Amino acid sequence: MPVHRRSQLLARALVLTAAATTALGVATGGSAQAAPGSPDPTDRKEVKAQVEQLYEEAEQASEKYNAALEAQRRLQGETTILQGEIAVAQDQLNELRGSLATVAGAQYRGGGMAQAAQLMLSSDPAGYLARARTMGQEAQRQHETLHELVARERRLDQRRVEATGKLAELDEARRSLADNKQQIQQRLAEAQKLLNGLGAGERARMTAQDARDAEQRATRGTDRLDLGSAPAASERGAAALAAAVRMVGAPYVYGATGPRAFDCSGLMYYSWRQAGVTLPRTSQAQAYAGRRINLSEARPGDLVIFYRDMHHVGMYAGGGVIVHAPYPGAKVRYESVNAMPVSGVVRL
């Protein structure tokens, strides 16, 4: 693993604060001083490696959590609509059955004599024939109504099957949501337990160093941020970037979409929403929300997707710099696009 990648992951993990983890129900602890018997450098490297892995797994579980939450909301809405449609269709079927039953009863009570006999005995044959034609038309309407009844019954059965399937999907989404939340909680708790052994002072120093490193990567070691002069790919892209930049300094919180806290995909979702565009909720889905382009073609406002499994996303700000929500304990900030392995760039 590249040195800058390992150091960045470590710093990310070291700043898993109580505020960030409490949002998911994780209790944190640890004294201000290093625990007795602090690990030696060799042990410390092993702790760092374990923490890096735990944090990576927590971040991946977070995007799965977001996807499951989105699926649950969608399925709840679809199920509610389906159940309403089924209730309406059932009422319509009941009305059709009632109408047919009424007509059938009337025909039964008025029947019993063949149409030819009724014609012969009728004192008004012409009037009878006119009425017979009307009865024939009514019979045709009844026939059509019967066909409609059968067709509606079939459609209603199909909707019931569909609703059953949606309910099953909803149950699965809820289980997935709970599983991924549990994974996040477990990874963060394990990481925090490991980090508590390093001492609060060392964690604070590494947090500060991480912020300095990020600034140096974004400014290329100079004292100012140079985002270049390339215009945004569109007016909406410019508006989305402006919204993201206004959020610089906001804290990272798992599952948050603003306006006061964000996770990585939540910041993209919020920023583009301010520009009038509703993005998918997760970084993996956002990776397919627009047209893929090369990194060399990136313009301000484009989405930059990171890692092979696409579990992180930022917004290109220009000059080889992104703005993104990095990880718990850190705030929305500028970062070099090269700080993480790029999976793709998306233009909306």
Give structural notes:
By secondary structure, this protein is of the alpha+beta class. It has 9 helices and 6 strands, in the order αααααααααββββββ. The protein has helices at residues 3-14, 18-22, 41-110, 115-121, 125-196, 200-219, 235-246, 264-274, 283-286; strands at 291-293, 303-306, 312-318, 321-324, 333-336, 342-347. The chain has a 6-stranded antiparallel beta sheet with strand order 1-6-2-3-4-5. A hairpin with an 8-residue loop joins strand 4 (321-324) and strand 5 (333-336). It is elongated, with a radius of gyration of 33 Å.
Question: Which secondary structure elements does this structure contain, and how are they paired or packed?
Answer:
Elements: H1 3-14, H2 18-22, H3 41-110, H4 115-121, H5 125-196, H6 200-219, H7 235-246, H8 264-274, H9 283-286, E1 291-293, E2 303-306, E3 312-318, E4 321-324, E5 333-336, E6 342-347
Antiparallel strand pairs: 1-6, 2-3, 2-6, 3-4, 4-5
Helix pairs in contact: 1-3, 1-6, 3-5, 4-5, 7-8
